């Protein structure tokens, strides 16, 4: 037995028998929280209670007439219909995105708004729906409420429509955690690097929200608004097409070029989600527009800088014959990238856009503190004295100086660091480390598009379930890289953005009486203890930045798709790096 229709209170038997008997428990049915649409029998008393249909901790009773043959249900037919104006169609569902600049609501108010539209807070049934929804969070200003809640039973998450089973979840790391026992509603978190992970949050928070409903055959087809040519799908200012006929990377690029586009470049996590979910949909591996231009640097074929990467486990593997990049279509590696043989035959994704790559940025005009060397828009410091430090210790010192271990994005930047590393007592830690996907990522969260491994490196065999011993990366004096044990004592290289300071008249001001992190200070600190070093560095930095009247700022970041890409350590590194000299 269940409610017949989401909005109604009339119960019906699933076999359409008339309801001639009921045996509700005291106070039932109560449709608690508006999400109890199915009926459960108490195993001791036999009376009935309405519950959320997604509840999994219950048995079930079947009934059939003696001698009756079971007839399998007919195959599910495609769901016909369309969406109301302002809603976005994906497969058999319509989605509405709310919560722009001056529009937010707590979970209950957001749900009520959806119900006023004959919908519910979004129900997400699989990875592809999650990708589609997260791709349109781009213009929302807050995390977005969806319909998952455990407000009835702690830890027993169910969809607020009371009907849909929980077939899929996409929790962020260490979620759901019910922080302080107050988090019972679910929101999708999103930013330029990661979009679509779920977090349990306080239901009283005012955030963005997403509604969903089934598409309806009663809604007429919308007027044709697709700005793209036939066969392409629109997303913001871009048009995409998946071609399943296998081609080599070069042949695929030629085919895309003939249609006025290129193999797809991917700029942010939202675009990654759209291409992986709405375009690829798990069908097959497909070429995208990223290719290694020499032995070390990956570049987009359409000239866009590499703002974002989404490498799969152990990728890029940097094998000599693997110079082109494809996107995985299978479920396990869904949407992740793999460098592979350019001559392999694969499906491919074309992209046509009205946007042009940003102009190459001029060299930075900021300032660096004493002891730091300027290059491009950054300041660099290399420590390489007799006393070495582990990778975590090295990163800690860089962070105390308001920076991070260096990330390297071009051959030119690499050559600069080789020249800056004058003492060459140790190899030098850089910011590359193994990530949770068993691949490599920069500690400052910048994209990984430049590689400079030494021969036969990285050589630490590492597979899911292993405890790897060489999870951090050091740079040899000649600039080549090696994976090594993170506790080894080495020198290190730091990087931070240049300082842009103004006095009351708008002139450039840089502190001149504040020494920065120094080799001498670190050596002394190693003798008397890391705590004292930390205190000294913090004090020096305090004096460096507490000069009266000084205001610190950084240059504005380039914009794409009508929205600023807000990256704390953002750079524009992959114009081959030559413009930074």
Automatic annotation (TrEMBL):
Pfam families: Lectin_C (PF00059)
Domain C-type lectin: start-end pairs: 11-53, 90-212, 235-351, 375-495
Swiss-Prot/TrEMBL keywords: Disulfide bond, Membrane, Transmembrane, Transmembrane helix
Transmembrane segments: 522-545
InterPro entries referenced in this protein's UniProt entry, alphabetically: C-type_lectin-like, C-type_lectin-like/link_sf, C-type_lectin/snaclec_domain, C-type_lectin_CS, CTDL_fold
Keyword Cell cycle on entry: no
Signal peptide extent: none
CDD domains recorded: CLECT
Classification via PROSITE patterns: C_TYPE_LECTIN_1, C_TYPE_LECTIN_2
Stated name of the protein: C-type lectin domain-containing protein
